[in-house]
Amino acid sequence: MEILNYKTETLVEVAYRAIKKDITERILVPGQKIVVRELHERYGISETPIKQALNRLVTEGLVESFPRRGMCVRKVKWQEIEELMDIRCMFETYYIDRVMETFKNNAEIREKFLENLTEHKRIIENIRDLNDYFQNYYLDQEFHQLFVKCSGNHRMLQIYNNLGTHVYAHYVYGRQPREGMIQGVKEHEAIYHALTAQDEAELRRCIEVHIANAKKNVYEMLQHDQDR
């Protein structure tokens, strides 16, 4: 039984992180049925917070729930990932002129982008364990959320945040080589520099390249899993 330290977090949060970690590390594999009692024994956490954590993961798309049959780790299909990435590209390029205008006129937003890039590079240079991989993912997500927020379309940002990016991220983060993560941050820097230069054509190109590379990374991970 793995006893977890939950002095500074709620039991639901501890269970949530533990299950997500097991999914990322392939201790719980896609298609595997989830038995709450087994998770209770593994984590040393009572079943109620585990069930609440699983419901949160259902919302995020990492776990599937079937009436009267329980829950399992969700299997991801390439077509779903491809469609999701295409939607991301559409969202991030549709209001590109508004994004550039907001970036130009809002010093606070510019500072947030710079803080994100600085912290992201720091994490990658010192990456040690899975928690750092998760932080890498969260900073990646934050960068794109800042970008979409600059559109000024609050409803689009809400939809963007609920696209289910956790589904594909867990096929890359924790498995992606450090060189791939460094490349991702460099692509973020290129987007930032295009924003600073107010170069619309270059900005659009940088976004499209970044998302195309993300698609490629996930596809290779899925192919690797199928070949095992």
From TrEMBL:
Keywords, comma-separated and alphabetical: DNA-binding, Transcription, Transcription regulation
Pfam families: FCD (PF07729), GntR (PF00392)
Cross-referenced InterPro entries: GntR_C, TF_FadR/GntR_C, Tscrpt_reg_HTH_GntR, WH-like_DNA-bd_sf, WH_DNA-bd_sf
SMART domains: FCD, HTH_GNTR
Keyword Oxidoreductase: no
Domain HTH gntR-type positions: 9-76
Xref: Gene3D superfamilies: GntR ligand-binding domain-like (1.20.120.530), Winged helix-like DNA-binding domain superfamily/Winged helix DNA-binding domain (1.10.10.10)
Name recorded for this polypeptide: GntR family transcriptional regulator
